[in-house]
């Protein structure tokens, strides 16, 4: 399990770095109302990259730090493919999320 946590942590670091390289990292957090969205990926209140930055990365980091069970069925890449369809510069992010999905789905 230790190796899975370590690998996931590395995926999160790379995801953050890649979001920054793609100029998709924000210095300003969404409002409390936006963060409270119950829609999948908070798609009704924020951009997908904001959901990755302000909800997904912190939640996964918390699970790793507390050594809690990680999701065993994850499908984030299909949302990335939908949101960034036709945006060649986002393919690196899509590919990374596909790899992350595969890692957690095979545990």
Beta-strand share of residues: under 5%
Q: What is the radius of gyration computed over CA atoms, rounded to a whole number of angstroms?
A: 14 Å
CATH architecture: Up-down Bundle
Give the terminus-to-terminus CA distance: 9 Å
CATH superfamily: YqcC-like
Can you give the mean pLDDT? 96
CATH topology: de novo design (two linked rop proteins)
Name the CATH class. Answer: Mainly Alpha
Give the count of helical stretches.
Answer: 5
| Shape label | globular
Structural class label: mainly alpha
Proportion of helical residues? 55-70%
- Poorly predicted runs of 5 or more residues: none
Order of helices and strands: HHHHH
Number of β-strand runs: 0
Largest sheet: none
Number of domains as seen in the coordinates: 1
Please describe the topology of this protein.
Layout: H1 2-21, H2 32-35, H3 48-65, H4 77-83, H5 91-105
Helix pairs in contact: 1-3, 1-5, 4-5
What does this structure look like?
The structure is a single chain. The protein is an all-alpha fold and 107 residues long. It has a single domain (2-28, 41-105), classed as de novo design (two linked rop proteins) (Up-down Bundle). Helices cover 60% and strands 0% of the residues. The protein has 5 helices and no strands. This is YqcC-like domain-containing protein.
Q: Which short descriptors sum up this protein?
A:
de novo design (two linked rop proteins), 107 residues, globular, YqcC-like_dom
Summarize the structure.
By secondary structure, this protein is an all-alpha fold. It has helices at residues 2-21, 32-35, 48-65, 77-83, 91-105.
């Amino acid at each position: 399990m230790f190796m899975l946590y370590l690998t996931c942590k590395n995926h999160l670091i790379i995801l953050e770095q890649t979001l920054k390289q793609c100029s998709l990292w924000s210095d300003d957090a969404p409002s409390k109302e936006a963060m409270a969205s119950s829609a999948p990926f908070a798609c009704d209140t924020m951009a997908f990259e904001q959901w990755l930055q302000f909800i997904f990365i912190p939640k996964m980091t918390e699970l790793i730090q507390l050594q809690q069970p990680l999701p065993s069925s994850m499908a984030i890449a299909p949302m990335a493919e939908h949101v960034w369809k036709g945006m060649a510069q986002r393919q690196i992010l899509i590919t990374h999320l596909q790899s992350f999905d595969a890692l957690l789905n095979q545990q």
